[in-house]
Amino acid sequence: MGARKAPVLPYRRGSDASEADFFDIPDEPCWAIVKRQLRYLKQPRTWLVFFMLVILTLFLRREKPPPPPLPHIDFDRVDWSRYAYSQYATSSPYLCNALIVFDTLQRLGSRAQRVLFYPENWDVLVEDTRDRDSQLLAMAQEKYNALLVPIDVQMVKAGSGPNESWDKSISKLLAFGETEFERIIHIDSDVSVLQNLDELFFLPSAQVAMPRAYWELPYTKQLSSLLIVLEPAFKEWYALMDAANAISYGQVDTNITARYKYDMELMNERYGDSAMVLPHRQYGLVTGEFRVDDHRAFLGNEHEEWDPEKVLAEAKLVHFSDWPLPKPWVMWPQELLADILPKCKVKPGTMHESGCKDREIWRKLYDDFRRRRRDVCKLLSYPAPNWPPREKTPGLADPPAGAPEAPVETPAVN
Predict the structure, then answer these.
(1) What is the rounded CA–CA span in Å between residue 360 and residue 366?
(2) Could you tell me which residues belong to the region Disordered (predicted)?
């Protein structure tokens, strides 16, 4: 049997080869090297590894979404019996307004309690179908689960008709005495609530928090009482009542031509330098802002461009203030409306006018309020007053309570 031929092995340089020879490239065509390496691509595991590397690369290079908000308050675990919204009704129109506020808060998902202050000579006993005040009080209690708090009628001052727009009542300050609550938000009832306000209950501790009356800036820095976030305390209640009674009985001189109500004056005197100031863009917008051309006081600067849609989207509530136009539960005198209506930006008053977004928003705010008044209270607006107002003839009897009259001079915001 012949000797078996030994296999031919590739040449390997020994350790005694020179350093230059050790790093020489083998005498093998590059194409042969490539072909040999490509054979490995036919194996499934190679493609699996390649696919996983691609997926890993894409995953690491993806644009990460913004981190979700981390709320410091779990609303589902809050004891909402400790927090409340308050309203006061000194007349039939304001009773309906209070229910509109409660209805909106309920629709927006607010979980806080509701408190309604009303004259003690009213009752929830519905005697007939025309007893609308009692019906609305009963609705506040049954449908909106409101705590009804009767108040002394002596505290109800001027302003009891549909044109009740500058009333000297201090009834809203009674919320300071409701110490069973940890915090109360009082909202003027001549507003439209646009978004949930429950976040205000969890502000850092402060006796009161209020927005600025920005329309007075930069000349006067006043706090506006259209929204008050307060911590009830008997000490504060007694102090405010003493100050209010001193004004009521003439023991303190008050400037009756001031452009703010007594309650606003009292709040500024006591808390003007200590209150937490809320941003007025969210919590102090007034409808009159859509009628002016100069928005620097509202925007707080001179470089920002006025965008009515953005402003409305940011606002949590809007307060109706367009004197001498009546409040929204009174129809507009057409003669007055022509002067008050917001003007378009381009070619106003012509067939080719445009840029009328301010007007559209302004009218929609009023229309929405009247629609809610009809839907919630089943009440229509009061007829428009005569304009210009007719002077009262001497000797004639006063109109019956609740009858519409021409609007009296009121502050720009109340």
Answers:
(1) 10
(2) 383-414
pLDDT recorded at residue 314: 95
Backbone angles phi and psi of 208, in degrees to 5: -145, 155
Angstrom distance (rounded) from CA 380 to CA 80: 34
Q: Order across the sheet with 146-151: list the strands.
A: 146-151, 113-119, 83-88, 183-187, 227-230, 208-211, 276-278
pLDDT in tens, 143-196: 999 999 998 766 655 444 444 443 445 777 889 999 999 999 999 989 999 999
Residue 398 structure tokens = 């006063």
Nearest CA among 152, 113, 145, 118 for reference residue 133: 118
Class of domain 78-377: alpha beta
Residues contacting residue 259 through CB under 8 Å, at least 6 positions apart: 216, 411, 412, 413
Secondary structure of residue 285 in the 3-state scheme: strand
Which DSSP category does 330 fall into?
Answer: B
Domain ranges of the chain: 78-377
- Record the pTM: 0.73
Handedness of CA 214, 215, 219, 221 (dihedral sign): negative
Pairing of the two strands 317-319 and 285-286: parallel
Cis? peptide before 388, omega within 30° of 0: yes
User: Which DSSP helix (H) or strand (E) runs through 20?
Assistant: helix 19-22
Spatial separation of the C-alpha atoms in residues 111 and 198, rounded to whole Å: 8
**What is the distance between the alpha carbons of residues 156 and 89, in angstroms, rounded to a whole number?**
9
358 membership: H or E segment, kind and range: helix 357-377
